[in-house]
Amino acid sequence: MNPRQACLACLAREPSATFEAALWIAAEHEPAAAPAQLLEQMRDLHMSVSVGLPMLPARELAQPLLRRLNELGYQQDDFHPLRPQAALMNQVLARKRGQPLALGLLALELARRLNIPLMGVNFPGHFLLQVPGADHLLDPCGGRRLYPADCRELLNRLFGSQVPLRAEHMALATPLQMLQRLSRNLRQLHTQHDQLIAALKDAERVVELGAGNASDYMARASLYQRLGCPQAERFDIERALLLSDDAIQRLRLTDRLQQLPHPGGSVH
């Protein structure tokens, strides 16, 4: 079983082994990353976190868990430009630095082991966490509480005041959605660092994990364009055209299709 297959097998379990699946994503890029060994190392982190938690009911331990991780050195990676290491879970464990989603996945795994109720929230631009039934969200990077006004401020800081806070921004994230988001993050980071083959692996994983959107197929088409694969590029542009509801985007995609060589050739 190769890393991609192992990742998908983790998702197919009941319940899904989301953290282990994220480790297999890292192993797809870095063969030296051994998920079985990394899971063994998690036992030590589990113990280090556990001994530092206060004696409180389990549903009150999510924020102390995040603060404890911060005390142990796990923080948001602020290196600029951000590198793929910030989203590869083996590197996050080794460096104690990561994107909010990577730190969130780590916190969710520890919460699972400690029987602390905690769930992921697909907030745009900055993955968040929530205790079921709580009136606030939690930042995986340190454990700060975010109430609706704080979420609105965070959204404005990330995307500008023209983007209103909507209920869908606070939606809980399924294991599949978290791994798709992780794959999109890696696709972007590998592309930014001109690691095109690695980015293509991530782009393929995005659409293999679940239904990709128009942007996913456009991103993969751009990678195929840079790699000189016009027929694969054509397939993804055609797929994006079918999925897009934006009239201007559809015009641009149609124009781009017309500039590509047609598949096959003339019969003489």
Automatic annotation (TrEMBL):
Keywords for this protein: Coiled coil
A Pfam family per the record: TPR_9
Entry keyword annotation includes Coiled coil: yes
Domain of life the protein comes from: Bacteria
InterPro entries: SirB1_N
Residues in coiled coil: 179-206
Domain Protein SirB1 N-terminal: 40-183
Family per record: Belongs to the UPF0162 family.
Name by which UniProt lists this protein: Tetratricopeptide repeat protein
Organism ancestry: Bacteria, Pseudomonadati, Pseudomonadota, Gammaproteobacteria, Pseudomonadales
